[in-house]
């Protein structure tokens, strides 16, 4: 029965790893909590919790943190917290006109952040990745000075990414096709000098994951678990979250809302179709309808998010061409989203990314179309609540989603993930 013995050991290993993950997640969520409090929250016995905590202390993922309430009756126990000198998730974002990098610790706090303007439109991957690598090096050095170590890197891109790969299959606004980012990205390395695990994902997907983990209303509502998240950089992307899981599609390309037809005989689109949403609600289309060229917009308001900022300013000033253009964009978004809402029955639609900033001028026509065209209206996060919610994370969503995504491997499997990035000679 030798085989059964090995299998039994494997199962025990897997169980132990799962329990280490549960304990680490519990402490990360709680802030400071005692061993008894961990037992109470995880349903593990106190005797079972003790060796798991010891292991996480040994790995430097937990620290003793004075005294903490047990969560129940009885005297306070000695507190535990996740280390603020432990692993950090590194998120990076490649935008059409900016680059950004940030690091979050196990407590979910942003510990370092840099951003730079960049003219990435139709620029080859090489130079863009070199600049991004320099920013990565800067952030890695900043967090190293605080005793943090990169556990992984996730890069948000405005394009299609093959599921589970680091290859950008097509990013029309960057002009990239089949670009593998692995060789060009350096700067995020572990203590051994080897690059940390890399993943690449679509920015709309990461924005939705950020909403799932960090979103929710300022009024204390929990983040929704069933929603359609719409975001825009230069294109329009969406992500569908069902039961707390991102719907990626067979190849990872789900969410191309920008190419859903809203006017079947409408304007031709770069994708080969006609009347796609992007032709009416995409940034270029809105600028054109507002009587602006992208060059005018950039000249009038330099810096990241320049064109959106200009549109917001003109709309706030009551410029009729701009408010008219945004009304039209809202109408087109409402028509496209009616299809998604009818199909998916989401709890809510979340307007994120750059669109969040333009919400006051987009929402009225968007909600009007949704109400008109849906058989069953979205089930709103609370009775009488908005059918369309505006993300509090706004344009930060994809970058934060990336950084939190990079930490997930550590939370899922504390021993293996941290060891992979940092062989244990500390
Ligand atoms: Zn199209």
TrEMBL record:
Pfam families: ROK (PF00480). It comes from the Bacteria. Belongs to the ROK (NagC/XylR) family. This is ROK family protein. The lineage of its organism: Bacteria, Bacillati, Actinomycetota, Actinomycetes, Kitasatosporales.
